[in-house]
Amino acid sequence: MTAALTVVADPGALAAQPQAKNLWRRLPVKAKVGAVVLGLFILAGVIGPFFAPYDPSYQSPSIALSMHPPDAAHWLGTTQSGQDVFSQLLTGIRLTLGLALVVGVIATGLSVIVGVTAAFLGGIWDDFLSLASNVFLVIPQVPLLILLLGYLPQRGQGPTAIVLAALGWPWGARVIRAQTLAIRNRDFIGASRETGEKTWRIIAYEIVPNEISLIAASFVNTVLYAIGASVALAFIGLADVSSWSLGTMLYWAESQQALQLGAWWWFVPPGLAVAFMGTALVLLNTGIDELGNPRLRDAAGTARVGGRRLRPADPTPVLQAVPERRSPLAAFVHSFSRASFYERDGNVPASAGPRPARPGALRPNGRQR
Amino acid sequence: MKPRSSRALPGRGGVVPAGEYPDSAQDLPMAGPVLDIKDFSVVYRSPGADVRAVHRVSLALHRGEVVGLAGESGSGKSTLAYGICRLLRPPALITSGSVTYQGRRAGRPVDVLHLRAEGLQHLRWREIAIVFQSAMNALNPVLNVRDQLLDVMHAHLKLTREEAAEKAASLLDLVGIPRNRLRSYPHELSGGMRQRVMIAMALATEPEIVIMDEPTTALDVVVQRDILAQIAELKESLGFSILFITHDLSLLLELADRIAVMYAGQLMELGTAGEIQHEAAHPYTKGLLRSFPSLHGQRRELAGIPGVPPDLSSLPPGCPFLPRCDFGTAACSDIDMTMAHVRTSDDLTHLTACPFVLPDEQQPRADRTAATQAVEG
Amino acid sequence: MTSSVVESAAAARGSLAMQATSISKDFTLGRGAVLHAVRDVSLNLYSGAVVALVGESGSGKSTVARLLAGQERLTSGSIELDGHQVNVASRGAFRSYKRQVQMVFQDPFGSLNPVHKVSYILERPVRLHQHPAGKTELRAELLRLLEQVRLTPADKFLAKFPHELSGGQRQRVSFARALAAQPRVLLADEPVSMLDVSIRLEMLNLLDDLRKRLKLALLYITHDIASARYFADEVLVMYAGQVVERGPAEELTQHPAHPYTQLLVASAPDPDKLGTGLAAGSQPARRAESAAAASGCPFSTRCPLVIDRCRQENPALQPVSPARAAACWRLDIAAPETVAGQQERRKA
Prior knowledge:
A: mainly alpha; MetI-like fold; B: Rossmann fold; 2 domains; four-stranded antiparallel sheet; 12 strands; 19% strand
């Protein structure tokens, strides 16, 4: 432990570092997992189509390549008309993810504008904007989506993105409005009024930067919603089915009876891709939440001491002198756990129970030189 | 003015005649402190470094005594108080020491650090009660005063409904709230009233020790004085001991029997109120005493303490007060911070962490004089 | 009305900078209820002098500061700056008013935006009010400001975020931000009450030093009457939105005339009363928490000297000595010596 207590001559110099560098380290494990998985999908979406072995729309004339199970030439097999599923998947990820990100950007932008304006201007503005977002919230979304997209003159990515964005902002707007109401009464807002700042500047430079984690969470949420909605819409045929997205893949698989014919390689990959993207986004979202609100972490009871989960109501752990024994592998695995956090210099905290500790045998802090 | 019956000095076998204590079957006079804290340390584990919140504090609380714990924010005074009840949550970790409780209801001394959760549950409230700073946060907003009091009694005492209701009413009498307030909700009470309700709740189980964590800091001075007077009165009649935590040393000088001054998680000085005020032996205590303007008497020369408290995650060895100390020498970065008897004092229990005998007269440093004059001018 | 009755003890320090005459502020609470947060308060601020406004929470002292800062609209009364009526209706007028009058907030942890560096926090007022020519000039001004509040080495602090600073350092940054507009009047709303005891004195010394060097007219708002004694020239004691007593700091704190001021002074912790404990007779107990009276003298519900007249009529400030005034019907009982002195002076 003496090593942990490094002596710094200038205490001011120490404090400057942690923030940015430790952001990744401070991220909860689930957020890290989510970010990595999502990163893989984004990578697949960006470079995937260039690596696609075939043109996803190319229909092989060979009858032998219809509904062919996976092999070395076609890693994920082929469809009924002999198209390469792997190539379709790589192209489809790009389209689905791209659409979802566009929807996320537009809808989050809208919710920030509406939420912050409503809360900061207050009065009639707040009443009007809150009413608008509440109305959008209570409208049943799926029927409206089907209705809107069914009657649109043209189908394609653009209209879908606009309709999804138009319906996706109210939830974020409500959350951001609540947060802005809290920030609005902080002294630093009053102080920037004292400085003589313009209202828009206070909003853009003083309030919004304080809501970054909330906005990020709202963005992730909206992307998640957009993926789900766009896949569902494509699946029921309310999209341009000639382009390749995960939704249209499922649409074609379903319409050509891949399930009945047992062609699992046709519908499982897009389905799993959607599921993994969704999981990654959920993990990222809860992770961001925990980062911004450490109480969630405590409430989740993730702290472990001496191999036992610590509930928030448990008594303060007491350090005991005997280290637990672990095999090298177990020790390596253990070093990733939160419990390892409590163990330095071979000291293991006693579980909350009455294990005999030997006070006096311990001199853990840097007092002895 | 009543003579102080409760000024018990540790180490001299001072047994305080406890007042009437309704619940105690055998009123055995017991030597030794009610609460004995020895070599107690708490760290907050964080990825970068350990934050040494409390470091090797030894302190005893005797029966019927008011011990004041004075310190600035971050000095570890609250961590110490909550740590001895084991109320701190991870990443807090008790790294050394022992806490022994010896109450009249407990047959033999209780080792708090080895208690199971159930035992601790019994110890808190029943034996040791806490009055928090923010009564608004500590009280349940949807329960009225009566239900809150009944809740506490139901959880910790075996009483019939009628007994409990009667006791709730008498508790309010005790803290000076009219009985018609029993049906009031916390938001209907003034800040002072809420704090009184908190005190009533703490006293509901007739604890031996009441820990008060800045109970009056959020209140106005007039109300503060009223409540402190009430606390002192209750202590005289019920005979519990108080560990009073505050940043306001001037308040403690009036209220406490003994005062422990904390800085950077360590004890700096421990002595009776009189010793702290007139014979302060530690430079930090001296600095604190010169920091607050007094309303009564002559205008004193005020100086304050320049500099900032140290970063607890990277404490240099030796005395943590050294960077701000007027009397610091090279040797100070090398001393072991153990509490030792103040050599100039007759009282063997007046302890300080500073190994040097300080000059009587304050010798202002050159850069300090300008600041002092500013206030005078 | 009051400022004409007695001469402020702060007047000797410098010229009149700001004059508030009979300012009031009502808040509508809904369901037709009205809270008179500030009632008929008059005060003058003089260049190079400190006027302290003392009162408990809810006495309206912070509202007075916000009224003077132009952050709230007056219900009635007027504020003059250098003899000109203050008007902050338009943004331009407000901004130029801010060049003269700045406010410092109580909570150094809440008044600095956690996402901005010190350099940004200080840069904004400098850009808005001083219009520096270029980057070098701006930077020089930022360094000068930090040095003015004794945050040295200044260039090191520019790159810091608020969370990297201690409470005292944050409050210094707040001061520097207020000073960046180069104001003549500084309204300090409990500037030290959130700071540690050992830091407070340094901050007050700093404020005092700034007052002297920059000839600031300073309004010091506090609940701690003892600090007002050491720091201020004139003290105004507020209760329930009204000024109940005013006078030179030393005189007022040592010989309070109004029963409320007397209670306030008697309640302040007094280390010299050591050992007497607080147990000894808590006579005014319980009454301390009664609300202010709706009619008559607001203090009548708690006053030990209350008579029927107090419950019916609200007393106005009346002079008790050349520089002091108190609002009480029973001053002859509450402060016999002070009143007797005044009568003798009148005869002479």
